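Before relying on records like the one below, remember that each one covers exactly one chain. Contacts with other chains, cofactors or solvent are not represented anywhere in the record.
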Amino acid sequence: MSFPVYPLMADISLQQPVSIISNADFIMSEQATPPDNSALWRSVSLTHRWKPDDYIQGNNGWYRLKINLDEIPTERLGIYIRRFNMNAAIFVNDTFLKDGGSFEEPLSRNWNRPLYAPVPALIWKKGENSIYIRLKTYPRYAYISPITIGVDNILSSEYELQRFLQISISTAVFPVTLAVVVFIFSLWVRRRHDTQYLWFSLAVLAWSTYSLNMITVDLWISTKTWEWFAHSSIEWWSILFAIFAHRFINQPHPVLEKIYVAFGVIASLTYFLIEHEDIDKATHLFHGLSIIIGFISTCIVSVSAFKNREKPHFLLAFGFIILLLSAINDWMFQTSISGITGRLTLHFHHYAAPIVFMFMTWHLSGRFSTALNEVELLNIDLKDRVEKARIELEQHFHAAAEIEKTQVKSLERERLSREIHDGMSGNIANSLMLTDLLSKQLEKNDADNSSIKPRLVQLKRQLEEGLTEIRNLMLTMENDVSNLDDLFSYIKDKYQQVLQPQTIFISSFDFANGQQHISQKLGLNILRMTQEVLNNINLHATATEVNLTMKQTEHQLLITITDDGCGFELTEKQKGHYGLSNLQKRGDDLGASVEIVSNTGSGCIVKLDIPL
């Protein structure tokens, strides 16, 4: 749509449906209503930016347009201002029509909003009509575009389109970008090691924070605080997005990223510390430096794309180029350098950024989905492998169980062999000796009742003891000996009778805790080891005195058995005699120390040091 431009207000007669006025009278005045016809009015061109000297007089100015009408318009007209900064009000013939909000601090922010006011026909009059535009702003912020006057239905459509481009799109995109932040951040929570998700969500959050500045009109905080908050967000958005790009292409740059972060801290502190009227000048510098960060990131991503030939890297590089060009264009508009934005009065960056966000969100979610699918496939494969391993382990277990059964049987045979030797074999051997003596006496026919009867009594006793040993073997397998007191009583009651011709003394015992539990294996082995020593004394030592002592220390049981018999040489090995080897083997099974001191003719000392 093309509109005629009228440079001289006095010649405007509104013959055209729409007229764009590019000149106006201007005056600095703090009045809230149109000022009188002061001689201080001066002619200015629209678009108009205030000069530094204007701010000395204040921050409230007035524009005046005069229109001559031959007759009152039959169609309703409207007045349209495409862009201004910061707040404006429209008057026609001293009648207020519309404004952009509060003129008190905090001033309503309309820097990115068009303003349109329909003019009722009753307000117009024949001849000269005066249109007043009040503009209130902050130092270095004042700006107003050409003013358009025309038919209401045409201008209202133009206004709605401009409002849609400048406000509605940003308003609709804001919750979408917040949803992107939550979505991508949740992906990072589930995939902490992949930091690209974190940096991207923080970058979008920073941009979303800045985008509030595009749509917010009335502030709930001071203007200075809001400016610090909004402009710091722009710097951090460029920093965080650059760091994300480095992670995305798997090329972190720690030193460069630290410089970026330091720049962000400096920019934020500067915005916070300087005066409000200096913030606009600071934004020119820091936004320009943020563009340099964007340029460096664009180069890094582009080089990676051409080097690795990966499609996502090419697309990200293309996105960076779009962002960079739109940022340069907006910066030129901000610093009053002519460009595309200067004519269309639009900021392009807030259109380009959401498009790049949507693409990156789609790609990052695709990456996450691909990783998830790979994990699921790996889980399925792992499940199959685990099942195969389970079957193999089960087979190995059964094989090991069979081997263990064989070993247990072998060990049990060995144990029973020792038990039979240590217990029953002695009794049976004695019984055989008595039987042999009786046989010899019967052969000589010199046997009489006085000599045979004692032998028979002794034979009976030996057989009874053999039977007792069989019962003991069965009973000890049921854990009858469960503590040290039981062990001592068993030895005292059962084995003191073994040595009939000799005198046996339990000379001392010292149990710190007689009720201390001992295992079946430990109790049985201690009994058998003690019995082995006593049986050997009975059969071979011809001793007249035997002493047995038992003492419990913190973790040990010390047993000492001494006799005054004939003794023996420890180096001698007699065929068919397994007592000492069995004694040593039982000691090894218990981790015990077995010490034997003996010489021919000097008796024997046996010391057992058994861990509890």
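Confidence is low (pLDDT under 50) at residues 1-12.
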